[in-house]
Design brief:
This protein is α/β, with parallel strands linked by helices. It folds into two domains: about 100 residues, Formyl transferase, N-terminal domain (Rossmann fold, 3-Layer(aba) Sandwich), CATH 3.40.50; about 100 residues, Rossmann fold. The chain is built from six helices and twelve strands. The strands form two sheets. A nine-stranded mixed β-sheet has the order 3-2-1-4-5-6-7-11-12, sandwiched between helices. A three-stranded antiparallel β-sheet has the order 8-9-10. Helix 1 packs across helix 6. The protein is globular, with a radius of gyration of 17 Å. Bound molecules: 5-O-phosphono-beta-D-ribofuranosylamine. The site of 5-O-phosphono-beta-D-ribofuranosylamine has 15 residues, from helix 1, strand 5 and helix 6.
């Protein structure tokens, strides 16, 4: 079977990208990362990709006449690399719905909250301010709605008493890496699909996202 091809969009640090690279290298994830694309030339994510020998492209939004022109170029380059799956891992731009439309069911995002709670920014601070006892991260299929697509899988952790947003973010991020690798693994093996707008796991519709266990495996 041909290797499952992945393109990654990232704007920043790239630790989730690194988790995919590391899992692939360790033989734990049968994928090939065919492209890492970003909107910030200096992003650490792009350096990580270069270090791993992965083709990169950095497009500067300021050099396009419109937001849509940027998205058209970006998605043209993604399509040219022919990925089976597009992974948004810390990509900090809102994408044009028309550019995204052909990727329905083939694009996922990782978000640092238990969606539908806290779409958008500052999720850790918002969870602490709300007094939440449990917080976490979600991998979901991408739709035109920001952080709003159907949920695939979640990782939860208990919020510690008096914990700062930074400390909580660090602990969530560790779980994110495992959540993303486990989610990509299930998609690459064909066990997770999007059909008629609903996430299916082993051909049955999922009533709620899979949960990441202590053993780093996903289960219903
Ligand atoms: C992660 O918290 C991810 O959930 C969010 O952006 C952050 C990216 O971190 N979408 P990194 O660039 O992967 O280190």
């Amino acid at each position: 079977m041909p290797t499952f091809r992945i393109a990654v969009l990232a704007s920043g640090r790239g630790s989730n990208l690194q988790a995919l690279i590391d899992a692939q290298r360790a033989g734990a994830l049968p994928i090939e990362i065919v492209l890492v694309a970003g909107d910030k030339a200096g992003a650490r994510a792009l350096r990580r990709a270069e270090d791993a020998g992965i083709p990169t492209v950095a497009l500067d939004p300021k050099s396009y006449p419109t937001r849509v022109a940027f998205d058209v170029d970006l998605f043209g380059r993604i399509a040219a690399s022919a990925p089976d799956l597009l992974v948004l891992a810390g990509f900090m731009r809102i994408l044009d719905p028309a550019a995204l439309a052909p990727w329905q069911g083939r694009a996922i995002n990782i978000h640092p909250s238990l969606l539908p709670k806290y779409p958008g920014l500052h999720t850790h601070r918002r969870a602490i301010e709300a007094g939440d006892a449990v917080h976490g991260a979600t991998v979901h299929f991408v739709t035109a709605e920001l952080d709003g697509g159907p949920g695939i899988a979640q990782a939860s952790i208990d919020v510690r008493h008096g914990e700062t947003p930074e400390a909580l973010a660090k602990r969530v991020l560790e779980r994110e890496h495992r959540l993303l690798v486990a989610s990509v693994s299930l998609i690459a093996s064909g066990r997770i699909t999007l059909r008629d707008g609903a996430v299916h796991f082993d051909d049955a519709p999922l009533a709620s996202p899979l949960r990441l266990g202590r053993d780093d495996r996903l289960a219903g």
